[in-house]
Amino acid sequence: MKTRLTTLPNGFRVVTEHMPALESAAVGVWVTAGARHEAAEQNGVAHFLEHMAFKGTATRSALKIAEEIEDVGGYINAYTSREMTAYYARVLRDDVPLAMDLIADILRSPAFDPRELEVERGVILQEIGQAADTPDDIIFDWLQEAAYPDQPIGRPILGHSERVGGFTGADLRRFVADHYGPGRMILSAAGAVDHDALVRLAERYFGDMPEVIAAPAEPAHFVRGERREQRDLEQAHFALAFEGPAWRDPEAYAAQVFALALGGSMSSRLFQKLREEHGLCYTIFAQAGAHDDTGNTTIYAGTGADQIGRLAELTMDEIRRAAEDLTEVEAARARAQMKAGLLMGLESPSARAERMARLLSIWGRVPDVDETVARIEAVGVPELRDEGARMVHSGRMALALYGPIDGAPGLAELDGRLAA
Predict the structure, then answer these.
(1) pLDDT tens digit string along 241-283?
(2) What is the b/e burial string over 356-385, where b = at least 16 CB atoms within 10 angstroms of the residue's CB?
(3) What are the beta bridge partners of residue 284?
């Protein structure tokens, strides 16, 4: 299987990967505009826009969109992240042109009907309320805000109720006009797809789009910060972030492998020490995430009010220890987990389409899977210990605590534990 890439004269890119054994295809348009491209007064508009995509166009009602895709047994969906918004469908081979027609219609001719806008506003406000009532969801928004205060990348993707409550169709159109240009769009498809046929469809639906010169996103600056919310809950929720490498940094793969070794599985240090040995929590994990110009390694756990202090102390101990004595056995296990996760995921055409769009937006090309595997394999114990040492000594941490947290330490105490 080989990827093919074509760029239309207006900058719109088409990338595909044919998977011969499949009768279905995943096809979508990824727009390199998300929550971090919003001005402060726009926070939440990118997500609102994604919701409104399926609420009708100039020629189709919301019901008609749903009926057309479901009449052929397919589905259509969308999501918003901090740096991207995606609109995608999964259909059988013969229905790829229909999927393209629908996606192009919702992207280029959204109706933004005032009545539908009010209905969807209610839905989004319920979504915001649900997130606020879910501690292990909201704490990550708070952690992001603590790490990047007063910055677009630190604001919640859903936005805040007060702001979302005032958005109009004009606000949505303005964001589209400012950011939805062909040079920021990637048509990515995998499975039973024909590249040349998709290029022809792209030319028909997107080839006449005028260029849009969008302002670059505000640079991200990881700032040491802390947020504590005392609440009468059953568990104390603990989330900690360390500044990490951005997507294109040479250390990006080491950060991901280190996070897996530290807390990415049942055999990881944090799981074994805090859950299996001390019984301090049910859930604990570490993960590494990256953006265009920043990244973070995040640790999360939930525990009892009288155990939060001990959990925080042992977490810092394990980070320090991993920076000092992480072994080749642990490194090999984490590399194997990362490779398996990549390769198993790529058995899905949807995952392949998303991977191609994401990598194309980062690198301007789609690295072969073998190249990615080789980068993972190249991460050795020295690189992993260096990554751990960077976390220990950088001083760039953010902390979010929620629930019965009277006994929880602050950043200064966590610093002291790392230095012990």
Answers:
(1) 999 999 999 999 999 999 999 999 999 999 999 999 999 999 9
(2) bbbbbbbeeebbebeebbeebeebebebbb
(3) 301
- Helix (H) / strand (E) element for 91: namely strand 85-92
The tokens for 294 are 């920043």
Tell me how far apart the alpha carbons of residues 308 and 301 are, in angstroms, rounded to a whole number: 9
Nearest one of 305, 295, 175, 283 to 235, comparing CA atoms? 305
CA nearest to 308, candidates 240, 414, 235: 235
What is the DSSP-derived secondary structure letter of residue 271?
A: I
Tokens of residue 131, six digits: 């997130």
Phi, psi at residue 78, to the nearest 5°? -160, 160
H or E segment to which residue 104 belongs: helix 96-108
Virtual torsion, Cα 242, 243, 247, 249, nearest 10 deg = -120
Query: Percentage of residues in the chain with pLDDT exceeding 70?
Result: 100
Q: Under 8 Å CB-to-CB from 105, ≥6 apart: which residues? A: 57, 58, 59, 60, 65
pLDDT digits (tens, 9 = 90+) for 7-39: 999 999 999 999 999 999 999 999 999 999 999
- Nearest residue to 372 (alpha-carbon basis) of 349, 343, 345, 348: 343
Strand order in the sheet with 13-18: 3-7, 13-18, 185-191, 24-31, 85-92, 75-80
Residues catalogued as catalytic? 50
pTM over 0.90: yes
DSSP per-residue letters across 348-397: SHHHHHHHHHHHHHHHSS---HHHHHHHHHT--HHHHHHHHHHHHHH--E
The 3-state DSSP class for residue 163 equals: helix
Residue type, 84: M
Residue carrying structure tokens 């969801």: 137
Flag whether pLDDT at 1 surpasses 80: no
Cα separation, 343 vs 323, in Å, equals 28
Mean of the per-residue pLDDT values for the chain?
A: 96
**Strand partners for 191:** 18, 25
Q: Smallest Cα–Cα separation from 36: which of 175, 209, 133?
A: 175
